[in-house]
Amino acid sequence: MAIPTAMLKLSLRTHLRNLSRIGIPYAAHLQRQMSSEAILGRLKEKGLLRSQAFIAGKWVDAEDGTTLPVYNPATQELLANVACVGGKETKEAITSANNAFYSWSILTAAERSKILRKWYELLMAHKEELGQLMTLENGKPLKEGLGEVVYGASFVEFYAEEAKRVYGDIIPPPLGDRRLFVLKQPVGVVGAITPWNFPLAMITRKVAPALACGCTVVVKPSELTPLTALAAAELALQAGVPSGVLNVVMGNASQIGDTLLASSQVKKISFTGSTAVGKKLMAAAAGTVKKVSLELGGNAPCIIFDDANLEVAVKGTLAAKFRNAGQTCVCVNRILVQEGIYEKFAKLFSTAVQELRVGNGLEEGVLQGPLITHAAVQKVEKHIQDAVSKGAKLLVGGKQHNLGYTFYEPTVLGDANSSMLISREEVFGPVAPLFRFKTEDEAIQIANDTQFGLASYLFTENVSQAWRVAEALEYGLVGINEGIISTEVAPFGGVKESGVGREGSKYGIDEYLEVKYVCLGNMKP
Ligand code: SIN
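That is the input. Now the predicted structure with succinic acid docked in place:
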C-alpha cells in the first residue's frame, strides 16, 4: 500500500508548523516542503513510495498496526510512517525465505543472472527518483545520492555476471580408485542488517551476491532510512525476484535482530554498522554457529608525506574526509602530516574546507548536507571540545552551522595529538584533525596504533615509500594518492576490530557459499 498523498501533505504541514514553534523558521522550510512533496508525489505515482514491510512477495503492515516515523534530517519533515514490525513478522519473513530457498537455489545461474540484470536496469532507470529519495531520508547531497544509486546498482550488475562464475574444483586424488571434487553451494537463508549512511549500496552489496549464488534474504534496513530499501524491493519484485527470495522488515530493531540471530533457519548474518553492535551479533550468532560477515567501524589514518603532490593530497583528503558529511566507515579520521609540509598543507586544506557549501542536499551546489540526527551533532561537539581542551587549534569551523539542529560546520583542527578522543574514536562527522609527524616509521606507528583496521590512505610521489607503507599498514583497504577507493570490483572489508569477511568483487560471493568436498571411491579401472 502506498502512502496517500493527502495524508502526506497534511502530516508535512502539521510538522512544519510544529517546527516553527521550536524556533525553526517556517518559511525556509516551506520552500523545501514543496520540493519534498513533489519528489514524494512522483515516487508515489511510480509505485516506489512504500510504507509496508515486504514479506513473502507481499506488502504487509505490522500485525498490531504500529508504525514508525521517517524524518528528513535536513528539515525534520515527516516523510512517511512505515510499518514497525517485530519478532512475529520477522519469523514469517524467515519462513518465507526458507520456503523459497530450494526453488531459487536450483535455478540455473543464467536464470538468476537474468533476473538480477533486470533489477540492475530498473534501479538505473529510476536513478533520479532513488537519488532524491536518499537525499530526503539520509540528507546526503543529491549528487552523492545519485552517485550512490550508480554505486549500489553496480553490485547488482557485477553479481548478475559473477553468478555464472561460481566454480568448484577437481583435486588430483591421492589414490587411483578415487576422484575428489569441491562443490560450492549457497549457505541458505541470509539475514542482512544494514545502516543508514548508504541506504541502497549497503543492501545491494549483500543482497546481490547472496541472490546470485542461490541464497534467499531477509533484510533489515536502518529504521532511519527504510524508504530507499523498500523502493529497491519494489524494483526487485518488478524485475521478477520470486516471492520469499527477498524480504524487508524494519521497526523494532532488537526484536528483529534477536529473531534473525536465534533462528536455526538463518544460516548467515551479514552486518554493516558499529563495532559495538557487531561484537554482540557475533556472540549471538555463536548460538546456532552461523557464518558472519561484519563490516564495522574504522579510525582511518591519512598520511601526507613531505614529497606528496599537495594538490592531489588536498583533493583526495577532502573527498575521503567529507564524503557523506564524514559519515562513512572509510572516512578519514586522522590526518597525519609530515612536518616539512605541515603548515602549507594545513593552509591549503583549510581553504578548501572553507569552500564546502553546507545546506539541504536538494539545493544546487551543496556539498555537505546535515548529519543524520542531532545526537550525531552532539558527538561531533564532544570530540571538538575534548580536542580543544587538550591543545588542538580550531583552524576552520568548530560550531553548529547557522542552519541549526542537524547541521555542523566543516571543521579543521590543527595540532591534534594522541591524548585526544578523536585519535582513538571514529568521529563520524565533518571534523578533520591534523597530526604532525617526523619520520615514516613514526607515521606507520601512529597509523597502526588503534584496534581498528578498515581504510587507510597515503599521499607520496615516492613509489618505494608508497609500497613499503601500504604493506606495513594494518588495514583491509589502502588508498595511495586517492581518497575514494570503493568499487564493486574490489574487495571491501577490515581487519582487527573493523570486521570479518569481504564484500564486493569475486571475494564477496564466497561469503554466501559453503564448500562441499565430494569423494568418489571404488572407481573401477
Ligand atoms: C561504509 O561506510 O560502510 C561504506 C563505504 C563505502 O562503501 O565506500
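The chain has 17 helices and 22 strands.
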